[in-house]
Amino acid sequence: MGSFTQDIRYGIRLLAKRPGFTLIAVLALALGIGANSAIFSVVNTLLLRPLPFKDSDRLVWFYEIQPKLDRAPFSPADFLDFQSQNSSFEELTSFRTMGFSLTGGDQPERVRGAIVSANFFSTLRAEPIEGRAFLPEEGQAGAHRVAVVSYSFWQNRFGGDPNLIGKTFIANDESVTVIGIMPASFNYPRRAEFWVNPRQIVPDLFSAFTNNLTAMRGTHYLAVFGRLKDGATLGSAQGDIDTVVAGIQQQHNTNHSVHLVTMHEQTVGDTRPALIILMVAVGFVLLIACANVANLMLARATGRYREMAIRTALGASRGRVIRQLLTESLLLALMGGALGIFLAWQGVKLLVAVSPANTPRLSEIGLDGQVFLFTLAVSLLTGIIFGLVPALQASKPDLNEALKEGGRGGNDGSRRSFVRNLLVVAEVALSLVVLIGAGLLVKSFERLLNVEPGFNTSNTLTGGISLPGKKYEDSAKRLAFFNELILRFEAIPGIEGVAISNDLPIEGTDTTSYPVIEGQQNGEDDRFLVGRHAVNAGYFKAMGVPLLKGREFTSRDIEGAPPVIVINETAAHRIWPDEDPVGKRLKFGGDNEPWLEIVGVVGDIKHNGLDAEPSLESYAPYMQEPDPYMTFALRAPNAATLTSTVRREVQAIDKDQPVSETQLMSDLLSESVAPRRFPMVLFSLFAGVAMLLAAVGIYGVMSYSVTQRTHEIGIRMALGAGQKDVLRLVLRQAMTVALIGIAAGLAAAFALTHLMSSLLFGVSATDPLTFVVIPVVLTGVALGACFVPARRAMKVDPMVALRYE
Prior knowledge:
Oligomer: single chain
C-alpha cells in the first residue's frame, strides 16, 4: 500500500511539472468521457432503467393489428372481452387521453387529461399521496364525475390547497370532484393533468362508455395494458390473448389480431435505434481521445527513456515500472473523468433542452448513481487503454543504448514509431466513420426539409377549439359557433385566408375508415384505408392546396344538401387508377350511411409527416359533418401577433371557450422533424470533435517526428536536399499514415452505416457522394494538420542540427 501511495505522489508531481501536457490530456479525455456520460444518462433512463412503477417488468401493452394498420387502438367491446376472457393477467385496464376545457377561473383554459378505467392506478401499483384512487363502481356509466389530479395541477391550478380533496372544478361544462392527488413523480400518460372516471361527457368525442359497451366494436380509440399474473410470461399471455381474439373473429367476423409487448418497449418506442447509434458514435470519440493521449504518453515515455533505464538498472522490475506508468495514466483519466462529469452535467441539460418534446421519460433524464459509476468505470478503463501501450513500451529499455551519453535524449525506436503511427491510423479511421455517419444524417435531413408538404406553411397561425358537449350537444349549435367564428376571423385586419378543419396537417390524421366503393369489390383484400377530414369551404385556398379536378366546396354544401366529398390525388390514383373520380360515389359505414359524391380532386397534403408516403385522404364540408373539435389556420403577414386577437374573438362568441395550442405553422412543421433533427445535430457535434481530435493527433505525431528527425533532416540538407525535398519527405510520411487511416475508415463505414438505415430519409446508407466528399474533406484536414510541422522542418539549419546532436 505504501508503494502505491508513493506512486500516486510521484505521479502527481510529474504531472504538475508538465502542466501543458497534463492540460491537453485531461481536456481530450474530458471531452470523450463527458460526452459518453451524457449520452449514457439518456440511454440509462430510456433503455436500461425500469419504468417508475412497482414490478414494471410485468406490465404488458396491447397493440391491435389491422389490415394496412400496424398499431391501432381498441374498441370498448374488444377491451371488455379481453378483460373477462383472459387467464394471464391480474388486471387489465384502458384509457384515452383527450383535451378538457376548464372554466370557472379568471380565463378559460384547455388542458390535457385522461379518461381511465377504475382499475388504472391499481394496475400500475400507483397510490395517491392524498385522498384515494377510483372505486370499482366509479367505472360504471352514469357514475358521478370524479378525478384524481396530478401534483402539478394541484400546485398550479389550486395553489397547493391542503384541503383540495372533496372540492370541485368545471371540466367540459361538468362539475368534477377531486378524490385524490398523485405524487410529483407520477406522469402517465405523459402530460396528463388529471384522470377522470369513464362516464359519457362528450358524446361526439368519447361515446364509448355507455350502457351498451359490448355493442361498440367498430370504433377504436382505447389504449389497453395489463399486469401479468405470477408465473405468466409474455409468450404465454400472447397465446392466451390469441385464443380470445380467435373467438372474437369467429363470432363477429373481424380479421384483427393483437400483438403484446412489454410496457417498457412501448414507452421507449422508436428511440432505441437512434440512441444505440449515438452511443456507438460517442464511444468512437472516446477511443479517438484515448489514442490521442496514448500518443502523448508515448512521446513523453520516449523522453523518460533514460529514467526508466536507470530504474531498471537499479533493480526495479518490469511490473514495478509498468505500475508506476499506469498510475500516472489513471491519475490523468480520473482528472479527465472529474472534468467529464461537469461537462456531462451541462451536456445533459443541453440534451434535455434540445430533445424533441415527445421524447419518452424526458423529465427523468439526469445524472444519478449509475451514471457516476459508469463514468468511474469508463475513466479507469480509459486510463488502462491509453496507458498500457506506452507503459509496456517504456518498461523494456535497451540499457546499453539508454545509458550511453548519446542516449540522454532517448531513442525513438522504429517499434514506438510504428505504434504511434498505428494509433493515428485508428484515430483517422474512427473519425471518418463518425464523419460519414454525420454526413449521411445531414444529407438525409436536407432531403427531408426539401420535401413539399403540399400546403403553404408561411405566415400562418394555428390553434384548436373544442366545444363542450353539454352546451353544444346538437349540430346546429356547433355550426352556429363556427360559422360566426369564421366571419369574425375573416374580419380581422390583414387576414388573407381562414382554414377550419378537424385536424392540422403534419400532426397525423385524426380519423381513418375503410370506405365502400360503389361499383367495386369491397372484400378484405380490396379495401383502402382513407383519412377523413371535415373542412370549411375556403380551406384549400387558404392552405394553398391546388384543385386538380372538379370543384371545391361552396356555401351550398350544407346539412340537407346532397352529401359531397373531395379526395386527394393519391386516393384518386389508387381507387380509380384509370378513371376520372369526379362523379363517383363512396360511403363510410354500413348500409344506412349515405353515399358521398366526389366533386373534386386536390393535391396531396403530408398529413402524417414529411417522411411519410402520401396517404389516401378525403375531405367533407364541415357544415355537413359538424365536429365539436376543430382546428384553425389563419394566414396573415402578422400571423405571429394574432394570438390575443384570436382569443378575444372566440370569447366574444362564448366567454367560457378556451383556445388551445396556438403556434405558427412553421413551428409545427419544425417540431414534426425534431426526431430526425436531434440525432443529426448530436452526430454532427461528435463528428466535429472527432475530426478535431484526429487533426490534433496527426499534428502531434508529426511535430514530434520532426523533432526526433532534426539530425536526419540536417544531414539531408547538408548533403544537398532542398526545402521542397524536406517538405515532400514530411508530408509523404504524414499523408501515408492518414490515407491508410482513411482507407480503413471507408471499409469500416461501408460495414457499419447500414445499421443507421432507420435514421435516414431519401439517402442510401452507402451514398456515393457522401463516401467521396467526406474522405476528401478529412484528407484536407490531415494535410493542414501536418503542414505546420512540415514547414518547421523546411527551416531546419543544418549546422545547428548537427551541432545539437
